[in-house]
Prior knowledge:
This is Purple acid phosphatase. The protein contains five helices and 24 strands.
Amino acid sequence: xxxxxxxxxxxxxxxxxxxxxxxxxxxxxxxxxxxxxxxxxxxxxxxxxxxxxxxxxxxxxxxxxxxxxxxxxxxxxxxxxxxxxxxxxxxxxxxxxxxxxxxxxxxxxxxxxxxxxxxxxxxxxxxxxxxxxxxxxxxxxxxxxxxxxxxxxxxxxxxxxxxxxxxxxxxxxxxxxxxxxxxxxxxxxxxxxxxxxxxxxxxxxxxxxxxxxxxxxxxxxxxxxxxxxxxxxxxxxxxxxxxxxxxxxxxxxxxxxxxxxxxxxxxxxxxxxxxxxxxxxxxxxxxxxxxxxxxxxxxxxxxxxxxxxxxxxxxxxxxxxxxxxxxxxxxxxxxxxxxxxxxxxxxxxxxxxxxxxxxxxxxxxxxxxxxxxxxxxxxxxxxxxxxxxxxxxxxxxxxxxxxxx
Length: 405
């Protein structure tokens, strides 16, 4: 099972142990910034052609298909295991939303399945910069199974047509493989008193499978992949997370249900990193860390991925600001491409818990090999080429005899 990660978008071999590792901080001559990409909403005149198609996981054997049309159209998906031979169909619903003077197209939402594992299905449905596009091309060539994105999708920041532009930019990739996302600060888009409700566009366009987990919020949820061998927690950095919050109570209940004998890998995604040696966004994840870190530690979460900081950084296993061989590895992967540029200034000296850091655009790949081992690699965008810049072998914590509860 391979996962790909990339961070904010304008539209986005050593065996790990608790032994000491020399920190690495990399700098090289980077190519110049690239212009913002803007893709017009309609490239068709009929108003019924599906646009901005993306798919997401719904449970173990279903997929959600989401797309937008300019005019009203049936919310129906035909699908099957042979090209142009559709033996099944599903219907769903459509909605739209208004944001000040902007009105979205018709957002269609259809769930298909049950689907057979390891099977190719065919279906038919009735930060946008040059660096983002480069990252997407690299992702498309990597053959991933599921893409995880820790927030900051379109960088619309109230400019609603940028959501449409982003949707069309990622459609060639998001329509063929599941994209599972969580919210970032650029998805809040709250403008009282005209738009008092945050995440309006994000919730309308990127519905995640909150009906599958115990969560009733689109801002935090969980799901299983690889036949239940991997459990993924998608946590919300910009919704309440203190011990009395709905998210905290949901997380406790969700973690309590995970059987680590059946699920050896446990991953978590947040937006604002809990550990960060970049000068940008210092301390912004600290309150959430103090509230939730012990929960993840007690349940032996293997890796915590974060975004927000426009650079790459990998930490050792760390808990409460100190190296701990039974704690999660923390990785900041907020480097997919964005209009704000890279966060190039790191703290000096580099903390001991920071193993590798570099201010470059790129993406990461998490490959689960078996119940005990997985391989993480980070690929820098060197102009239009992807270059392997950091990699590490990880051992699942439940396979470590010294870490078992």
